[in-house]
Specification:
CATH superfamily of the largest domain: P-loop containing nucleotide triphosphate hydrolases
Number of helices: 9
CATH architecture of the largest domain: 3-Layer(aba) Sandwich
Shape: globular
Strand order of the largest sheet: 2-3-1-4-5
Structural class: alpha/beta
Oligomer: single chain
CATH class of the largest domain: Alpha Beta
Number of strands: 5
Radius of gyration: 18 Å
Length: 203
């Protein structure tokens, strides 16, 4: 039996969405990571990687045949047309990977974990959207500590993501993750109990 419905889980950098997803997984819920799907579609042996190398030149490949992400970023960074070509190739493939993984999920509901749930159009793949939210100062502190990067770099990522107020306005459910991990887990468990009462039609 496949899952009755799919929840979208998102949040800005440093919000704690990965920690929330990990706890949902511990509760037995299948989580499909959109970022992981994006990596799968360009693995060696996949058709997309051959198309990318054919379009941009073999310079975008590592010596072992895997994708050289830095070289690809450099190739599309200054050329919007090349970025659009890449997105047109990859986005449908990523969507297929996500749908296939969700179709295999056998938990009462499944979760699509996506940092760009609302920006990417992936909201259309889910019944409800859960936002893990945190004040911007806390996002900065967490991301700088976790990734060992400068504040300016985290601010640049924040600026590229959907503004916090817009993300919250699009949410069906919100967890305010401004406390400790135990508090986050309690909130996840509270929503999990609620989600178990929903079927595909109600969600």
């Amino acid at each position: 039996m496949t899952s009755a419905w799919t929840l979208g889980l998102t949040g800005g950098i440093g919000s704690g969405k990965s920690a929330a997803a990990e706890h949902f997984a511990r509760l037995g819920i299948t989580c499909v990571d959109a970022d992981q799907a994006a990596r799968w579609v360009v693995e060696p042996g996949r058709p997309a990687l051959a198309e990318i190398a054919g379009h941009f030149s073999p310079a975008v490949l590592q010596p072992d045949g895997s994708l050289n992400r830095a070289a690809l970023r450099a190739a599309i960074f200054a050329d919007p047309a090349q970025r659009r070509w890449l997105e047109a190739l990859l986005h449908p493939l990523i969507r297929q990977e996500i749908l296939a993984a969700l179709a295999r999920a056998a938990s009462p509901y499944a979760i699509l974990v996506s940092p760009l749930l609302f920006e990417s159009g992936q909201r259309a793949l889910v019944r409800r959207g859960l936002v893990i939210d945190a004040p911007e100062a806390l996002q900065l502190e967490r991301a700088m500590r976790r990734d060992g990067v400068e504040e300016a770099q985290v601010r640049a990522i924040l600026a590229a993501q959907l503004p916090r107020a817009e993300r919250l306005a699009k949410a069906d459910d919100v967890i305010c993750n401004d406390g400790d991990l135990a508090t986050l887990h309690t909130e996840v468990e509270r929503l999990h109990s609620f989600y178990l009462t929903l079927d595909g039609g109600q969600a």
